[in-house]
Amino acid sequence: MEKMDDDWRNNPKLAGMDKSKLDMLQNMAQQGMGKSPSDLLPFIMSAASQGRKSGLKFDNNEINAIIEVLKMGKSPEEAAKLDRVVSLMKMIH
User: Fold this and answer.
1) How would you class 79 by CB atoms within 10 Å of its CB: exposed for 0-12, middle for 13-18, buried for 19 or more?
2) Which of 46, 61, 73, 74 is spaced 20 to 30 Å from 37 by Cα?
């Protein structure tokens, strides 16, 4: 299994985020490794509901920062698919 690089945690866009949120994202990112953008939608929805159950709430700025970080290192096609997945999630929410 591919190992996720922790460098994303040092991204300035995530600088103000709570450590418990970053830990949850780390766990989610490792589980999501290798998933295609279309497979990520149900995965992200499930992770978001788990986060809410454990009392973690992400504001829009945090969500946007996370998405930008997720897109790093992706091809333009993968980044565009991720944007579409995010748009779908926002319509559902």
Assistant:
1) middle
2) 61
